[in-house]
Write the structure tokens for this entry.
Amino acid sequence: MGDHFQRGGILCVVSGPSGSGKTTLCRRFSGSDGNACYAVSATTRAPREGEVDGTDYHFFDRAGFEAGVARGDFLEHAEVHGNLYGTLKGEVLGHLAAGRDVLMDIDVQGAALVRASTDPAIREALVDVFILLPGDEELVRRLQGRGTETPEQLALRLRNAREESRHWPEYRYTLVSADKETDFAAFRSILAGERCRSSRLRIAFGEPKLPGV
Ligand code: 5GP
């Protein structure tokens, strides 16, 4: 971006069923792009083995989470698989104001809440992407592949995944998942295109100097 132009940050909301690879896409993009960051969510679910507080999630107990909701700390929150999940405003708003792109991996209820926001900064920044699996068999295969859940948890996730997948038409973009590299290339292309939208560009100061004028 030259001296004369500034771009407003993008708020990229990514949803999809468990096993769709949405977290990996968001993490990989934000980890490889100097202008993007990942909004670490808060949750009341117990940490999985290897998960680190503040990196994978901000782990809260229910009372602490509910106190945060009452204080207005959350941009959105929802109950998913019997636990509370939410995005802290502090993970998003400052970055957007500074022109950085923020990636959020949230469920369809959370995405609907962000989409319904009346805050102009959120409305202008928002891009929503759904990661859809090509069929039911692939959904089951990917859910089983994780191997981190009990059979009951797996059954619940499968029901939720089927239900969640019905929401793809509500998103501006739907990426039908193929393999990791193809998905990442498509995801990067969506963000590259969104970064070029004229409506995101601001003249920082004075008139831009055009060559030869
Ligand atoms: P997991 O427990 O497997 O990490 O996540 C379960 C679900 O919660 C996923 O669909 C994930 O997208 C969703 N989720 C994670 N963080 C948030 C959040 O901050 N808000 C909402 N609404 N959903 C979230």
User: Anything to note?
Assistant: The two ends are 20 Å apart (CA to CA). The helical segments are 22-32, 62-71, 93-97, 108-115, 120-125, 136-146, 151-165, 180-195. The mean pLDDT is 92.
